[in-house]
Write a structure and sequence with these properties.
This protein is α/β, with parallel strands linked by helices and about 180 residues long. Helix content is about 30%, strand content about 25%. The chain contains five helices and eight strands. Helix 3 links the parallel strand 2 and strand 3. InterPro entries: DNA_methylase_N6_adenine_CS (IPR002052), RNA_MeTrfase_RsmD (IPR004398), SAM-dependent_MTases_sf (IPR029063).
Length: about 180
């Protein structure tokens, strides 16, 4: 796995061995950013189920200013820390070592890009977005990217956001919500 494009493009990323996380393939990651960008002029990104951190690192590589990565698994946290170190711009990243619910209770500033790839997709994505809207964590121009199994059917609208784009990539489905 590697950073696909941007200022860190081509740099290798570590992944977590085992079944506790499902790393997004480089092909799907490239497709996601081609759908929503592919580059950004600034902004803040939240990766609520960070895994290896590759999606948030890709977003910063492509122009986001800062990223908050949330991960509760200790082994995944170690991988994220190594991947952040690889960027040589650790000041752009904040790793919150906790579960998503606790993180959402602590966060206070809005995000321009939200990345959601939770283990139990449909119910979790809806609950997370409702809570983010309630806590005013979504900017006016927010893009919310949800990665799920292709069999998962997400609601057309959640928390004042509607589906803008949706595409299947092998066993994965990418759904993008906007206001």
């Amino acid at each position: 796995m590697r950073v696909v494009a941007g200022k860190y493009g081509g740099r290798p990323l570590k992944t977590l061995e085992g079944r506790t996380t499902r790393p997004t393939t480089d092909k799907v990651k490239g497709a996601i950013f081609n759908m929503i960008g592919p580059y950004f002029d600034s902004g803040r990104v939240l990766d609520l189920y960070a895994g290896s951190g590759s999606l948030a690192i890709e977003a910063v590589s492509r122009g986001m200013e800062a990223a908050v990565l949330v991960e509760k698994d200790r082994r995944a946290q170690a991988v994220i820390s190594q991947n952040i170190k690889m960027t040589k711009e650790e000041q752009c990243f904040q790793l919150l070592k906790m579960d998503s619910g606790r993180a959402l209770d602590l966060l206070s500033d809005p995000f321009d890009l939200v990345l959601l790839d939770p283990p139990y997709a449909k119910e979790q994505i809806a609950a997370d977005l409702e809570k983010m809207a309630e806590r005013q964590l979504l900017s006016e121009e927010v893009l919310v990217v949800c990665e799920t199994d292709k069999s998962v059917r997400l609601p057309e609208e959640i928390a004042g956001l509607g589906i803008w784009k949706q595409k299947n990539y092998g066993i994965s489905k990418v759904t993008v919500y906007v206001r």
